[in-house]
Amino acid sequence: MAKKEANPRPTISRALEVALCTQVSEACPNCGKPLFKKKGKTTFREYEIAHIYPLNPTDDELELLQSQKKLSEDANHEDNLIPLCFTCHNIFDNPKTIEGYCDLVRKKENLIKQSEQIEIFGQYQLESEIIDVINSLIDSNVQFDESTEFEAKDIDAKLNSSIRPITKRKIKNDVSSFYLFVRDRFADLERNDPTKAVLIALQVKTFYVKQTTVTSSQQEIFENTVDWIRLKHELASKEAAEVIAAFYVQNCELFE
Question: Which pTM value belongs to this model?
Answer without folding.
Answer: 0.80
